[in-house]
Amino acid sequence: MQTAFEARKVEIQQNTAGIDPEQVLVIEIIGSVDNFSNAVKRIKGLEWMGELESTEIAPDQDFYNENNPEKKLNGRLYLVMTNQRALDEMLALWRHYQADPSMKFERGLTKFRDVFLHLKNIRRWDVQDRLFETGVIDIWQEDLECDGDRVIPFEVELWFRGNNELRVVSASQVANLVQQAGGRILSQSVIESIAYHGLLAELPAHAIRDIAENPNTELVKCENVMFFRPVGQMVVGDTPAEGDVEIGQFEEMPLPTGNPIVALFDGVPMVNHSLLAGRLIVDDPDNWEADYTASERIHGSSMASLIVHGDLNQPQPPLSRPVYVRPIMKPLGGYSTLRPEGIPENCLVVDLIHRAVKRLFEGDQEEAPVAPQIKVINLSVGDPARQFTHSMSPLARLLDWLSVKYGVLFVVSAGNHPTSISLRVPREEFDSFQADEFEAATIRALYRDARHRRLLSPAETINGISVGAVHQDEAQVAYQGNRIDPFSSLLPSPISAFGSGYRRAIKPDVIFCGGRQWYRHPFQSTNPVTIEPAIFLSPPGNKVASPGSLVGELNATSYTCGTSNATALISRAAGICYDSLQQIFNEQADEVDPSNYEVPLLKAMLVHGCSWGDIGSSISEALRTPENGRQLRGLISRWIGYGMPIVDRVLDCTEQRATVLGFGQLSDGEAHVFSLPLPPSLGSRPEWRRLTVTLAWLSPISASTQKYRTANLWFEMLNNSLAPTRSDADSRTVRKGTVQHEVFEGQQAEPFIDGDVIEIKVNCREDAGKIQSPIAYGLAVSLEVAEGVDIAVYNEVRTRISPAIQIQQVANQG
Predict the structure, then answer these.
(1) Per DSSP, which regions of 351-430 are E strands?
(2) 596 by DSSP, 3-state: which?
(3) Would you state the pLDDT for residue 582?
(4) I want to staple 680 with a disulfide (CB 3.0 to 4.6 A). Which of 272, 655, 725, 754 is the partner?
């Protein structure tokens, strides 16, 4: 073991990326990762790879917090050692210590005493990792209660082997064990670029019941298996509330023309609905439409309506281009009642999405690409059985890889948690609440429960934009009934999922209008008070096209809310930004081929109008304590990301605001410097001003490494005395993903002369692996003063930017 450490062939990491199961020990720690890592750093040759708080361990009779016995204990990490003998010796040393914590360590091994003090266990990968981490047992038990005789499908995620022969052997061994248990393998998916090897299997109910009662079966103990997972968990099934809208005004609007830019992967929509007819291109190669009745085409119709028209509470011009729709959901369950829509159990979601995207850009078999012009793919679905903790899900890895491979932006919903909220206040206190007190109590309750309200896979995608919901809509409410609105201020929806993302990256990226979710007034007997989401067939909510209650009805509308809605509205904004971007290139840079830069620029444009504003202030006021001042920025960004974008800010300039776009591509060690001319009229004037800078790119991934992100780009302000004060998100956290968005403000009088500039340096360096091709990026920069101030920022910047702006390519010294 000492030899292995001296050879530096030992690492501790936080997820299973790139792990060979024969070379890993699972470490269960007590307390925080920080305490453990401090002890680890004292051991020469042991490389610490972790940054995040890891998953939590349930307390038991031996390990618990004496002051709070119910409190979960942190975490699970992985010790990777390439030497089998060293692994065995580490296990032996731990077992001796467990038997006698006062044992005397041999010479050279005493450094492990401090590490062991922070451990609950060291063990090999086993049954609990394969089954209990994924929640599959609970879901199987639910299936057995509902229908104890049916065959139950599930996913077997295998340890990814780089060698195809080893993959064949691994799959064959698992298939044999499944067959011995009375089941069969339905399909297999191998995607080397994301280190994924999955099997879709099924077992009869009695075999599933045997595993649930006694997991130590040969199949579950099979060392080739990393995880058993449920399938078909992406389900949407809420019945929307009926609404009404004047259809005539939409029928008079021109139909879209040109190629689709936005794709919707969702349920089958009502293509003949008055609001949707002629505006969608539905591509259904699997004929899933045949499984739908007209009344069940709810979610796809809602999302298509929001993308095409926006919220019908405030009618807007429809998109000028058609929307491509690919069904990936169908009605599930029996035929007696309205069935929820979801990903079917008989397919692997990773394989389904892979095939759907590949069909867009490469086609199927002999068929040509069906929509290669697509730039944005809307995914308003999430997997409630897979909340993000610290390991990238296979589906998120897939989206990250596909985004680079095909140059496409995935817009993904952060996920909904429409569950009860425990306010932890007595009934008497609740009854005396003013609106602001109720609001603050709800915010604090949501944060207390944030670990149960995490992002749903695949919202952790690093290249996509993940969208949370704002508790806002323009619906007129005539009857409130016994419903209560928890928020009187503009805030995120109480059902919107919490981040952060991978390696503490900002997630969700943005929040947007997702409709108001009201709650039922608690019963008098409820003490302490818990509030439940209200399901009510009336507004509020975003108004959308929907199936009607009458057969053949083609002009019905309804109200819905959630992150799915917000995601569709951001995809709509992307379609509008794309047309604006084309116009900019045509008018100002017609000699440039924009195709390589369109998606990074779109991504930057969608985020650029974000700020925390009053939303951040309201959350801060509710959460602030004397002890948590340094943590507040991180807490706020977990719920709202970069904030709520005002997309018009990047599409339209005003006399007091100038927005410029930049783009380029960089390789490792390179940098570009952009010069932004300053408006002379602002010189030496103590006027409030804001400088907003957004950098976006798509990074290749190294799926088998812990760092994961191959390309790290970031910008630096080289001489920004004009607006020196950072606001909103933490300056270190904003550099951990693939969007860096920062807001700078100032008000001090700064003397400068005509010709002075602010320089923005865009840097690039390798992160998880070699950068094989230059990385394209988009940059958006806005300088503004308060509206009404007599400083013509736009004109003064514009007249100076044409001759003055230049891109300097320099070696990156950062």
Answers:
(1) 376-379, 383-387, 409-413, 421-422
(2) helix
(3) 94
(4) 754
